[in-house]
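Here is one chain, start to finish.
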Amino acid sequence: MTTAPPSTVSLGDRFARELPEMALPWQAEEAPDPRLLVLNEPLAAELGLDPDSLRSGEGVRLLVGDAVPDGAHPVAQAYAGHQFGGYNPRLGDGRALLLGELTGPDGQLHDLHLKGSGPTPFSRGGDGFAAVGPMLREYVISEAMHALGSPTTRALAVVATGRPVYRETALPGAVLARIASSHLRVGSFQFARSTGDVDLLRRLADMAIERHHPAAASADNRYLALYEAVVAAQASLVAQWMLVGFIHGVMNTDNTTISGETIDYGPCAFMEAVDPDTVYSSIDSGGRYRFGNQPLVIEWNLARLAEALLPLFADEQERAVEIAVEALKGFRPRYGAAWAAGMRAKLGLPEGLDDEATTALADDLLALLQAGHVDHTTFFRALGSAARGDADPARNLFLDLAGFDAWAQRWRALAPDGDAMDRVNPVYIPRNHLVEEALDAATAGDLEPLGRLLTAVTRPFEQREGLERYAAPAPEEFGAAYRTFCGT
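Its structure:
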């Protein structure tokens, strides 16, 4: 590893300095032949980075971790976590590396983090590398989520390494350069708690407050206020997932951020035909992380965060548990309110309509959609036309026409706003068959399908000529057998 990166990049090492117990100094494996596949120029500009500099030879070497700025101290982060319900006290960055913190033009800190940069002491027998396809999947879907208005980590670049990666077959290797407001997660607090070091737990919580929830600092119980802020952030985030049909696929506690951003786009996908039991992940054989279970899972994960924070809530264990139980009760009303507000917008309904009425109308609609195997994204976009007087695009998606007509009569009585609906109901999402098509082509060296897909999903609400196939559901035979993989 050398220290000759682009002059425009400066990286801090606050996490490494302030939490050394959770930061293992490490470096990326040198990439034999790094080649930039895709660079997120708008994001680079937001961060105050020069895209041309990042495209240079030195810039590409920074993006795979071969060259880091003077003063940067890359580390593999330690964390624990519950994976599919089973606790592992030592997970950590097994194929990832925190290069350091960027300070944006607005003064905010952002982690620059690599994925697929090689083995670390946390690799647990894995090779530490990543293939082109899964890294481009994270790029596409995280940028789509950002365009949909959902808080998310974002992809700065994907670089092919020139190193083969062996899974079922040999695949071209790649590194993802990811930006996050931080990589603090529920699993970070579980790790700190497991050490028995309350001072470490407190320092970690203080960092989380300063970076993500500064209002908690002035509360009577700052750590309880931090917890309540995380509950609120995650309630809002998962409500947004449910409103757009996003399935994370691997909602382990180490993939639940303190910031309220979506992280780790591994076996993720968007639901097509409405069905709460939808599972795409090849490793979720029991359906723990199925679409309809996501609100319950995040509540469970937040309970694990409460357990980790107990020593900071109160000196007496019994009192700390009482505080935690009461705070967690806030999740369901917060989630319900966030989901109802989002559904009111999707249905074009007035803000004054109460949550109970919204939920009743929406639940009846979702039952109709599920019974008719209606495509989630297609329906809600078509419903905007119904609000403007043309019901056929939405109505023709149903076999139960009488059922739809009865529901639509109730809905139209509330005077929905079709134009407002078009501003929140996307035309384009990363359709699973199109994602696979783009990733297969990119793995074979053709990036054009990827570029066309990104053109569609990064402007999801704007219908454009020539992009009709990007709005169409997958062929039925594709969806029935579709599975996603985590890439390790």
